[in-house]
């Protein structure tokens, strides 16, 4: 026994030594903690044990998931951890086919209070089909799980992940700062309910680059309390576009400020870029927003501010209290599948101010050749360059 212990210790220290000299160190391979890449064996506890050892490690460490398909239930990967962790996935993580297995926890895979984390590669497949059918059937269903969530995390890199068929939001970022998402692929069918690609809320310094998102709801949704965000090189569609909101669902709500969405392409999405708020009293705001260099291909509402959002019509005679200001749409080109290519429908009592439309060219994809139009209500601002359809400013 003690011999075995010494051996294990030597082994682990050797691995630590390799950790220092080679970047793709295999220090904590989930397989050596009992995980099986056969797609059938429940590997949840093996993953949790590997995480726990890495998290307690006094030097930087590496959790490694080799090739293979691993069946895992809810993974709460909790911090704080002593040193930074690289989580490398070469394999595929799948959720159990029965949606109840993860559907009662809010998150399938959650990193909680971790600072200094990189998650590289891998595919996660939540197999959401059964859950979506339950939702569509109007039965009582569990709340549903987001596939991967970073909660109260700082200094995070998520790179090269593929997320398939989440029950709800695919990638969530909440109460976190300095998070970089790069080169991710997200796929769910266009009719799948609430399967947003990436949802950010109450977070600062989130950067999302070079990602392809095809889903049933927003490709990226930017919720209350999001600040200093940069979104670039996104391919979005199918989906509902990139959205700031929904804002103003409650009265006491953090604002959204300093958001840039640039160099992106939208294909057959329900909307392009939009700001959306409930028609309800609220102290929230959205300001200092830049949408630039965007291509719209047959998009429903390429440019949209909708402050009268009220899906179940339970906000009669109410107006949005959310103050929308300093929003720029610049160099937006392509085609709209609805006639209202530019729609600025702001709050009756809190009009939008400082809206800038610059170098816009949007045509209407219409067999009857009706021209594209601009609709404006309670919005003021400026125009620059050529704006087609004609700006209301
Ligand atoms: C706005 O956000 C960017 C990151 O997207 C950041 O570099 C910049 O400093 C922020 N500006 C202000 C005024 O905070
Ligand atoms: C909002 O627009 C409506 C209709 O155009 C107008 O009657 C109302 O005065 C506007 N609200 C404000 C605060 O300007």
What does this structure look like?
The chain has 393 residues and is mainly β. The chain has a domain at 246-277 and 286-393. It has 4 helices and 28 strands. The strands form 2 sheets. An 11-stranded parallel sheet has the order 5-7-9-12-15-17-19-21-23-25-27. Strands 8-10-13-16-14-11 form a 6-stranded parallel β-barrel. It is elongated and about 65 Å long. The protein starts with a helix and ends in a 5-residue tail after the last strand. Mean pLDDT is 94; it is low at 1-13 and 19-24. The structure holds 2-acetamido-2-deoxy-beta-D-glucopyranose (2 copies). One 2-acetamido-2-deoxy-beta-D-glucopyranose is lined by residues 348-349, 351, 377-378. One 2-acetamido-2-deoxy-beta-D-glucopyranose (NAG) is lined by residues 228-230, 258, 260.
Helices, strands, pairings?
Blueprint: H1 2-21, E1 28-29, E2 38-42, H2 44-56, E3 61-65, E4 69-71, E5 75-78, E6 85-94, H3 100-103, E7 107-112, E8 115-125, H4 129-136, E9 146-151, E10 154-159, E11 162-164, E12 171-174, E13 177-182, E14 185-187, E15 198-201, E16 204-214, E17 220-222, E18 227-236, E19 242-247, E20 256-267, E21 271-278, E22 285-299, E23 301-309, E24 323-336, E25 340-345, E26 352-364, E27 373-377, E28 379-388
Parallel strand pairs: 1-3, 2-4, 3-6, 4-6, 5-7, 6-8, 7-9, 8-10, 8-11, 9-12, 10-13, 11-14, 12-15, 13-16, 14-16, 15-17, 16-18, 17-19, 18-20, 19-21, 20-22, 21-23, 22-24, 23-25, 24-26, 25-27, 26-28
The structure holds 2-acetamido-2-deoxy-beta-D-glucopyranose (2 copies).
